[in-house]
Specification:
Elements: E1 7-9, H1 11-30, H2 37-55, E2 59-65, E3 69-71, E4 76-84, E5 91-98, E6 107-114, E7 119-126, E8 132-144, E9 150-165, H3 169-172, H4 174-182, E10 193-204, H5 216-222, E11 226-231, E12 237-243, E13 251-252, E14 255-256, H6 257-274, E15 278-284, E16 288-291, H7 301-309, H8 320-330, E17 336-340, H9 346-360, E18 364-370, H10 373-379, H11 386-411, E19 415-419, H12 424-438
Parallel strand pairs: 3-9, 12-15, 12-17, 17-18, 18-19
Antiparallel strand pairs: 1-9, 2-4, 4-7, 5-6, 5-8, 6-7, 8-9, 10-11, 13-14, 15-16
Helix pairs in contact: 1-2, 6-7, 6-12, 8-9, 9-11, 10-11
Length: about 450
């Protein structure tokens, strides 16, 4: 219950006061004998502000509502409910002071509307841009009188926090559900026969079969050629590694690249768990930051989500040598490593290439990066000015350097995924399934 509400002039009253100055000057020039009109008008305006503020009414009760958990890029609402006793406010406004990751500039505003009954309600639609915990620190409520000259307002601290998680919308989508239903994994892992490393049964050898599948000992005992039917490999180790350096913290369509990568990685990890494989998450910048154990069940997927939420934004160059060496030491068997990273030029990518080369000797590596839409736009811009031509030439040079780095990685045996952020998740899933079918993970 609030009892004291300071009176303040509105913007309309301020404009009227500002217009009074030239009016007073005209009176002084044209009718000096009427000088008394000026102070009387000023006093009348002040009295109108006070009376209008009193007529604005008394705030009986208010509540501010906010969700406790949201996802990056997911719209949510800050809501305020207010009840007034006496008076009928002409306009009611609210403002929140909050973490900049919740609202641009750390400020959100809304206008309250009269709800059925006597309550007023308003909400601000927000979309968080970064993971973490965003605090909502203070609220201002301002309501005007019927003339719009005077207003009353309160300012109150808020003890509210919103936890911002990685975006898992693709996992909940009907698109992924249909995709899983159409793939070899499905919602229930089926046994795949004919390839793999785990023995399933013997079958009579037919022309066209791989000769390496012939079981010579069994063929000798049965006096006919028999081939081994193997079950597709399960329990593969899949590592989703994230570069958290400054290049990955740059925004892409308003959301940092690292958050786009986390969404794609978690979506692919969910598919891997559905296929009875094991998934872990690893993040590094100047030093390793997050490393989970291998998760083998979908019911433990929230552990990967919590670890992804802990990946911080680092305005520093990543240390690929330390990060990938730490990861390699952690892996006891051949694994598929899906590395999400970004680079700007061949010089900065040199240490990355050397570190990845050491991984390729023991593991299957997929390097995932984003298509640079801005670079492509500069390359394809109409050459209608000197600046546009210079920008196109520079963009072409940077694009060639970028492709040079990717080509070096391909020659080392690294699989490359370069896609736009809206297609990245399914591109990673497609590549994972292709590699899984090829049985190269088990070696």
């Amino acid at each position: 219950m609030l009892k004291r509400f300071p009176l303040v002039p509105t913007a309309r009253a301020a404009w009227l006061a500002a217009l009074a100055a030239p009016a007073a000057l005209l009176v002084a020039v044209l009718a000096p004998q009427a000088w008394l009109v000026t102070p009387v008008a000023g006093a009348a305006l002040l009295l109108a502000v006070l009376v209008d503020g009193l007529l604005a009414g008394r705030l009986v009760e208010w509540r501010s509502l906010a969700p406790t958990d949201v996802e990056v890029g997911e719209p949510f609402a800050l809501t305020v409910l207010a009840e007034f006793g006496t008076g009928v406010p002409r306009r009611v406004d609210v403002a929140w002071q909050c973490d900049p990751r919740l609202a641009p500039g750390g400020v959100a505003t809304a206008e309250l509307k009269r709800a059925p009954g006597s309550d007023w309600q308003g909400e601000a639609k927000l979309a968080p841009t970064r993971r973490g915990t965003g605090a909502i620190e203070r609220l201002w409520l301002n309501w005007q009188g019927p003339l719009g000259l005077g207003a009353r307002q309160i300012s109150a601290p808020l003890d509210s926090e919103v936890r911002i998680w990685p975006d898992l919308a693709p996992i909940r989508s009907k698109t992924l559900e249909a995709y899983l239903r159409d793939t070899e994994i499905g919602m229930i892992a089926r046994r795949q026969r004919g390839h793999g490393t785990q023995f399933e049964s013997l079958t009579e050898y037919d022309a066209g079969m791989d000769r390496r599948r012939i079981d010579w000992k069994s063929s000798a005992r049965h006096s006919k050629l028999l081939a081994r039917e193997n079950e597709s490999e399960r329990n593969n180790q899949i590592v989703f590694a994230f570069d958290c350096g400054k290049a990955m913290c740059e925004p892409l369509d308003g959301v940092p690249r690292i958050d786009r990568a986390v969404t794609a990685g978690l979506t692919a990890a969910y598919v891997a768990l559905k296929g009875s494989d094991r998934a872990m998450l690893f993040g590094f910048a100047r030093r390793p930051e997050v490393m989970t154990p291998f998760i083998s069940e979908t019911r433990l997927f929230p552990r990967l989500q919590e670890a992804a939420a802990a990946l911080d934004y680092r305005a520093e160059e990543p240390n690929f040598t330390l990060g990938l060496a730490t990861l390699s030491a952690r892996l006891r068997r051949r694994s598929l490593i899906v590395l999400f990273s970004e680079f700007t030029d061949p010089t900065s990518a040199e240490m990355m290439i050397e570190s990845i080369a050491r991984l390729v000797n023991k593991h299957v590596v997929v390097f995932v990066t984003f298509e640079d839409a801005e670079l492509e736009a500069l390359k394809n811009a109409a050459p209608d000015s000197i600046g546009a031509i210079a920008g196109a030439v520079t963009a072409q040079s940077l694009s060639q350097q970028r492709q040079l780095v990717l080509e070096r990685l391909r020659h080392m045996g690294v699989d490359i995924i370069e896609a736009s952020h809206d297609k990245l998740g399914f591109a990673v899933i497609d590549r994972y399934l292709r590699i899984r079918r090829s049985e190269v993970i088990a070696g």
